[in-house]
Design goal:
This protein has about 240 residues and is of the alpha+beta class. The protein contains 5 helices and 11 strands; from the N terminus they run βββααββαββαβαβββ.
């Protein structure tokens, strides 16, 4: 199944299920008003959302309407937490070299992780505001996972069981400010997300090996969009 959050005049939007071909959608009002509400009661809501997704594919969802990505907000316009990990060390090394900084040897064994702002995620067609291009605007196309409550000190296998959704993210960075702000703060702005979200069961097959502790990064930009997908087959749809 594919989930989206549509604009309705509120800060958290209105949850919808989207067809696999992205042509149709249906509101999930009878299940959960927002994606956060669905995540808070995922054991009960996920099966109902999957059933609604099946109805869309079968053409039996009478209340379905044409899906317009321009009406989509970020799947989670506001999230309780946003943590970014840089586990692809060759990328980290190149970024640091571009700003005249050496990469510590410890990065090869201890991945760089930072907690960023999660109160304002941009939608797929929303402008990304910047005060000046002199800040060194850059983006990283990333894959993000949405979890439920992960217990403290959970090992990789235990943490994996708490993954609920997968999405693509444009992580904006301000390269010319990072040198002055790091490590006091991260010079990043609001990430933008694809308009749909995908449950973890639909992850690519290359993600089946647990415990890697790595952040998967796309090879091409996500073009200021972001979202979460879902389904039952181990492949992107």
């Amino acid at each position: 199944m594919k989930l989206a959050t549509l604009r309705d005049g509120t800060r958290d939007g209105r949850l919808a299920v989207v067809s696999r071909d992205l042509s149709r959608a249906v509101h999930a009002d009878g299940i959960a008003k927002t994606l956060q509400q669905a995540l808070d009661d995922w054991p009960a809501c996920s099966s109902q959302l999957a059933a609604l997704a099946a109805r869309i594919e079968q053409g039996t969802a009478a209340e379905a309407f044409s899906f317009n990505p321009a009406q989509a907000m970020a799947p989670l316009p506001r999230a309780h937490h946003w943590v970014d990990g840089s586990a692809y060390v060759n990328h980290v090394e190149l970024v640091r070299k571009a700003r005249g900084a050496e990469m510590p040897e410890s990065f090869w064994t201890d991945p760089l992780v930072y907690q960023g702002g999660s109160d304002d995620f941009l939608g797929p067609t929303q402008d990304a505001p910047f005060v000046s291009e002199d800040w060194g605007i850059d983006l990283e196309a990333e894959v993000a996972v949405v979890t439920d409550d992960v217990p403290m000190s959970a090992d990789p296998l235990a943490a994996r069981r708490h993954i609920r959704l997968v999405m693509l993210v444009n992580d904006w960075s301000l390269r010319n400010l990072i040198r002055a702000s790091w490590p006091r703060a991260s010079a990043s702005t609001s990430p933008s997300r694809r308009p749909r979200s995908l449950p973890w069961r639909s992850r690519p097959t290359s993600w089946t090996r647990p415990g890697t502790g790595r952040k998967s990064t796309c090879r091409s930009p996500c073009t200021s969009t972001a979202g979460c997908w879902g389904g039952r087959t181990p492949a992107w749809t």
